[in-house]
Amino acid sequence: MDRSVDEIILRPEGMFDDSPCILMFSGGRDSTIAAARLSKIGAKLCLVTISSGHLVGINRVRQRIQEMNSILPPSTRWLHIKQPTELRTDTSFYQKTCLPCHHSYVVASSVMAFRLSISNLAFGYAMYQSAWPEQSPMAISRLTNILARHQIGLLLPAYNIDSRARAEELLRQLGLSSESLEQKCLQQVSNVSLSEDALRRFAWDSGGSLDEELLGWRSKQQSGKNARSISCRL
Known about the structure:
alpha/beta; Rossmann fold; 8 helices; globular
């Protein structure tokens, strides 16, 4: 496994000191395990779920949230927000992969981090899905560097899961459903992988687009420091 990825899988116990962490939460197997692991090492979690016109089945995510009440502290927050559609940059260069949507997920979660003064951002990426462009070691390394430039640390608590069967086993050990209780995408036909050369061109910071996007939102947030914060308890 790529060392740059290995270094951000899990942090030592006690690193959070009750500091909050935003976790992009789909309700699927890997983001559920990520939530459980982060909670176990002391992270004060804010779960963020994205919805859009091509994602259906939010009640499945609510079902996952309900069953996790037994393992997450009452202070855990869940934010359900719409996917940004008016991005400052063109994402068409990402080709037919999940990268355009993940671009908007990173923007949305980073904006929430700026707004709520949270410095840790987590995703439920997993090693057994590392052929997916957004979860490849190269893309993760680049995303880590981009977020770091905006004072946001990237955490991948589920990345060392090497198979779907292992993910299902871990969920059963937690007393949770091994089913993937996430929204279904109406656009995804198949999981498209990219060659190494294509990844170099399309992974996150091609042309500096994502970096510039975050810089614009961060500047906007800093100019409106007194904006009302958003919170939604479980």
